[in-house]
From TrEMBL:
<protein>
    <recommendedName>
        <fullName>Nitroreductase domain-containing protein</fullName>
    </recommendedName>
</protein>
<keyword id="KW-0472">Membrane</keyword>
<keyword id="KW-0812">Transmembrane</keyword>
<feature type="transmembrane region" description="Helical">
    <location>
        <begin position="20"/>
        <end position="40"/>
    </location>
</feature>
<dbReference type="InterPro" id="IPR050461">
    <property type="entry name" value="Nitroreductase_HadB/RutE"/>
</dbReference>
<keyword id="KW-1133">Transmembrane helix</keyword>
<dbReference type="InterPro" id="IPR000415">
    <property type="entry name" value="Nitroreductase-like"/>
</dbReference>
<dbReference type="GO" id="GO:0016491">
    <property type="term" value="F:oxidoreductase activity"/>
</dbReference>
């Protein structure tokens, strides 16, 4: 279906982003920490891990056990009156 479709790359990236989100939710659901990162040298990662394939990296996720004091309280949020103005 996608063989001649020019939208296939954007559809694949969108679907990959959804799958990455589910992956991160699953990691956190079992009590591990997940640190997704973009902005890495994707060409270097692709040549190191997928040298003889057509696969390409989308993001890198650090996975591990959180150390002591890894989490902090939620930062303060704006109140409704500060954030909403009726016109």
């Amino acid at each position: 279906m996608f063989a001649a479709n020019e939208m296939r790359d954007s559809a694949a990236r969108y679907n990959g982003a959804l799958q990455a989100a589910y992956f991160i939710i699953a990691i956190r659901a079992v009590g591990l920490a997940a640190g997704p990162m973009i902005g890495f040298d994707d060409a270097a990662v692709d040549s190191e891990f997928f040298p003889d394939t057509t696969w390409r990296s989308h993001l890198v996720v650090n996975i591990g056990t959180p150390g002591p004091g890894a989490w902090f309280d939620r930062l303060p949020r704006l109140s409704y009156d500060d954030a909403v103005h009726h016109a």
